[in-house]
Amino acid sequence: MSTCPKKNGHEVLESVKNHPDLKHIPIIILTTSSSEWDILQAYREHCNSYIVKPVDAQEFFKITSVLEDFWIHTASIPNKKSSS
């Protein structure tokens, strides 16, 4: 049994953003890559935000808290019924 992923993150992002029922879902890239190519490619593929994970655990938890606050409590996104 192989543990290799069948798709990389860019391929998943592209699949989601090209799917008519999923393309409206906000996608936040949280990655270890700070490669300019990865950042540009993710935005070309319509990610909504690209965040490089900090190495420090405390900073990581701070970022996840900010993300949760923004996407759960601040941002307005359509629900499935209204987006159909």
TrEMBL record:
SUPFAM superfamilies assigned: CheY-like
UniProt domain Response regulatory: residue ranges: 1-68
Listed Pfam families: Response_reg
UniProt cross-references to PANTHER family, sorted A to Z: RESPONSE REGULATOR RCP1, RESPONSE REGULATOR RCP1-RELATED
Protein name, per record: Response regulator
Species annotation: Algoriphagus aquatilis
Taxonomic placement: Bacteria, Pseudomonadati, Bacteroidota, Cytophagia, Cytophagales
